[in-house]
């Protein structure tokens, strides 16, 4: 019946996406689609005389919360999409996560200043009060610390990831002794390896000259989320 209503009013959208626990990424899509269809949904409930549902959907405080969570889920969906696909190594995943933590800090700071630049749906809702914004700011801070807690193991291996991702820039004195001499050799000949894709770069290294660096690369690239696990020639 709701689909018939959407077609009768020539809505841009003719259906609402379904969410399942198996595909949690779809949750953000469901929130976004419901937001886009909220006026049509209210019209449908009015037609069916569903007063409780209409009251909820027309409540400004509920609408404000829904807008905030829709905006936040869209940001999190973008993070999830970036971490999928081929050619993603563990250092790439960590880079995406670090960037998202910085975004959360930015979002919280902006909400503290009533700046809704990155929360377009929330910005479009009428009369978002300061108490609400403070709650959203606190929620973003809690989410930031939850990311810190869940991914603290990444911070513990930051140097190892830097060696894998930026072998030409890492400070040789700050790395393990078994890698120091090989890194010096590598950095002294970096013109031979510049602009090579990461996987091809490690495949091109001589197993005789750089056995420890290759072993290190195999270890890092075999961690979860990496698309490739072999570095050999």
From TrEMBL:
<protein>
    <submittedName>
        <fullName>General transcription factor II-I repeat domain-containing protein 2</fullName>
    </submittedName>
</protein>
């Amino acid at each position: 019946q709701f689909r018939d209503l959407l077609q009768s009013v020539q809505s841009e959208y003719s259906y609402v996406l379904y969410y399942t626990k198996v595909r949690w990424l779809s949750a953000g899509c469901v929130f976004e689609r419901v937001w886009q269809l909220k006026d049509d949904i209210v019209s449908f409930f009015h037609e069916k005389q569903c007063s409780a549902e209409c009251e909820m959907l027309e409540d400004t405080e509920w609408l404000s919360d829904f807008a905030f969570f829709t905006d936040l889920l869209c940001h999190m969906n973008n993070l999830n999409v970036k971490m999928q696909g081929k050619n993603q190594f563990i250092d790439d995943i960590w880079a995406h996560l670090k960037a998202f933590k910085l975004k959360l800090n930015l979002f919280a700071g902006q909400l503290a200043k009533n700046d809704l630049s990155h929360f377009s749906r929330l910005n479009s809702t009428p009369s978002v009060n300061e108490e609400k914004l403070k709650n959203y700011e606190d929620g973003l801070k809690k989410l930031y610390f939850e990311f810190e807690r869940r991914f603290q193991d990444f911070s513990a291996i930051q140097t190892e990831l830097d060696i894998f991702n930026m072998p030409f820039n890492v400070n040789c004195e700050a790395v393990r002794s078994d890698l120091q001499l090989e890194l010096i050799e590598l950095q002294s000949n970096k013109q031979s390896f510049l602009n090579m894709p990461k996987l091809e770069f490690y495949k091109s290294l001589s197993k005789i000259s750089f056995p420890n660096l290759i072993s290190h690369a195999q270890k890092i690239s075999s961690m979860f989320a990496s698309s490739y696990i072999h570095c050999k020639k």
